[in-house]
From TrEMBL, chain A:
InterPro entries found in the cross-reference section: Alpha-ketoacid_DH_E1_comp (IPR050771), DH_E1 (IPR001017), THDP-binding (IPR029061)
Stored Gene3D superfamilies: 3.40.50.970
Protein's recorded name: Dehydrogenase E1 component domain-containing protein
Short name of one Pfam family: E1_dh
From TrEMBL, chain B:
Catalytic reactions on record: N(6)-[(R)-lipoyl]-L-lysyl-[protein] + pyruvate + H(+) = N(6)-[(R)-S(8)-acetyldihydrolipoyl]-L-lysyl-[protein] + CO2
NCBIfam families, A to Z: PRK09212.1 (NF006667), PRK11892.1 (NF008854)
Organism annotation: Hibiscus sabdariffa (roselle)
Biological role stated in the UniProt entry: The pyruvate dehydrogenase complex catalyzes the overall conversion of pyruvate to acetyl-CoA and CO2.
EC nos: 1.2.4.1
Name of the protein described by the UniProt record: Pyruvate dehydrogenase E1 component subunit beta
UniProt key word DNA-binding: no
Cofactor: thiamine diphosphate
Amino acid sequence: MAIWCRVSSRTIANANHMRKRMNQGFAVDVNRASGFSSASNRGRPLFSDGNRRHLNSLPWNRATLVWFQRFKSTLAEKQQDPFLSSDSDEDHQSLEFPGGKVSYTSEMNFISESSQTRVPCYRVLDDDGELIPDSHFQQVSEEVAVKMYSKMVSLQIMDTIFYEAQRQGRISFYLTSAGEEAINIASAAALSEQDIILPQYREPGVLLWRGFTLQEFADQCFGNKADYGKGRQMPIHYGSKKHNFFTISSPIATQLPQAAGIAYSLKMDNKKACVVSYIGDGGTSEGDFHAGLNFAAVMEAPVIFFCRNNGWAISTNVSEQFRSDGIVVKGRAYGIRSIRVDGNDALAVYTAVSAAREMAVNEHRPILIEALTYRVGHHSTSDDSTKYRKLDEIVYWKNARNPVNRFRNWVQSNGWWSEQQETQLRNRVRKQLLEAIQVAEKAEKPPLAEMFRDVYDYPPSNLEEQEKYLRETISRHPIDYPADIPV
Amino acid sequence: MLGVVRQKMLGQSLPKIRPVVSVLRSYSSAAKQMTVRDSLNSALDEEMSADPKVFLMGEEVGEYQGAYKISKGLLEKYGPERVRDTPITEAGFAGIGVGAAYYGLKPVVEFMTFNFSMQAIDHIINSAAKSNYMSAGQMSVPIVFRGPNGAAAGVGAQHSQCYAAWYASCPGLKVLTPYSSEDARGLLKAAIRDPDPVVFLENELLYGESFPVSDEVLDSSFCLPIGKAKIERVGRDVTITAFSRMVGHALKAAEILEKDGIDAEVINLRSIRPLDRSTINASVRKTNRLVTVEEGFPQHGVGAEICASVVEESFAYLDAPVERIAGADIPMPYAANLERLAVPQVEDIVRAAKRACYRSVPLAAAA
């Protein structure tokens, strides 16, 4: 290895180090990943400039020095035993610090608050749904593509009709996923049935993909006795154990550390599955976002954190939510691999989630995906977003950047879909949904007996008493109680 | 005075009174002594050994052997997968514990003190307590949150609050407050085995105290029922309810009262939620007088709930107003003299019992 490098004080110091160690008769193992741990030096202070004066007094060997330089450069990735203090008190150009070697610099530089360019966004289909040449993506079969597209359409129709139902006073609340159909369906399509989902609340498409029927959605929204939640929760708070979809919980971001916990449990059980947890741009401001990501990284848990950056958290625009370049840059802060993807490009989302799943399951690591999209609808039926954003902006994203249209163009260009199928699908889904709503509306509400169940695994005596008193009161004053609630 | 036997225990500085008519079982005369710390440690050890789903998580529980050494030796025995040291994120590890419990594991999450559980209280209340109900039984949460609760000595306001009333007001949780070593073992085992979320409130000052334990208590299948109080001392003149460290104070107060001819019945609540209303009411119907003792703040406290329960169910049996002894209604001061004044002392309990027995002038009249 006849590579000569310019002799700088740094290399002298390094050579010094080398010399000293060789003088000590300490066999240097080239393959050893660590820096310069030496048991005999354990007591010496880690950071000491005191040895600078020895710099010129010891002889050094150029060849050794150069070899040493090369050796050092390959140590970049692996660091072990960072706590053992090293001989490098004399090596004042870098620091053995817990976590790895840190090199010094005499130039004072603050890391800029933002980089020159924003992190690029991965996409495969252009705005019109045409495949971008030379793009990397995972091919989907006709069957999967048609299923994905059909589910995206179903989600659109479901959102429209349930929203209307709320406006008509038939259900008390609803929230749409308009504009985020690609995120919902494509991410679900890339996962296996065993992967566990911890949603935020704008991901009913994941359940739709997994086979939750329109009737089951309607039953939950109407809180009738067929509802798996037994009428205990507001509309859209779906949950289904058999679909591995955890019941939606209103407090924001609590699902993130919980996801890390479940992922850890999957790992302990050696299951070939991962957890996928969704969060919006606003939710990343919660303390639980920090807790969840930090823990997942430390515990090496197989979890995918999927952030739907749709620009708005009710009326709070992202510029008022954080000042970082979105969410993707936060991944590195936690030691988590991350990617930014075009959330309105179904193929890109599908590919990114597939790849993320591979890494999470096989390498036992968390992955962060930031999907850029737009919340076309209002936050919920309790919101009128035209009060805080321009109508043109909404209309633009709804029409020109529509993920459903984009994907349809691609599916159609492959010859897998036609206008006729489109009309048939939309009519069929609409009809099914309207029927489901009618059935759900007429169905009985959950009986009184369910009111006191599930507070605990087994009802304690005080709850049994309360139920007894309530029944007695109802039988004494039936006029005060709704007649249609079964007792 | 039927059935009261006084016995001097080996190594105990104070005589302990044990009822012969014991609700549970009789003690062997040469009973072993065990500290509360060792009881908790042995309970954790046995439950972890019996069920591979049980794991321990918290700050300093592993390498440091536990902030109060409760988990001593467990890391060595079970390895880092089952005894996890966590970063300083209460919200994080409480959330992770809840997630793991959703999945089917049985986490025991340790808070260094329950004062720090405030940073995780959303996970405890909105996730752990309510999930089984909101998901209609699909998501159960077999988790135990444990750690020291209430005042220690000289630790100031943010390390001294008692959270029994806070957690006990929330449906979906079970709240336990052990006093003796037997309580610690039996209740912790019951908590770990229970499929519902349990908040297990220990007390730092009790960790080092020794109590006699019978062979039955030492058996690995020993378990105490959740929701049953224990009558530590049978009496007939006044009922004193207490939990955790205050049980010891109440027993000492009973000693003093006995010299004045007042025979106090001391109830160790053991379980704040569910509260053993039937035992309390049965006792009040017998003695007709009630003094509730707790370390925590008076407003909306455990004593308030007990008083309401007795007024609702046994009003006609009360011969005197209910006396409530609680901590001072101030954040805990640090200075030793002030701290002593802010926490119930034995004398406070004695005076309250006398007031209830009309042996001294009521507070209102004295003012």
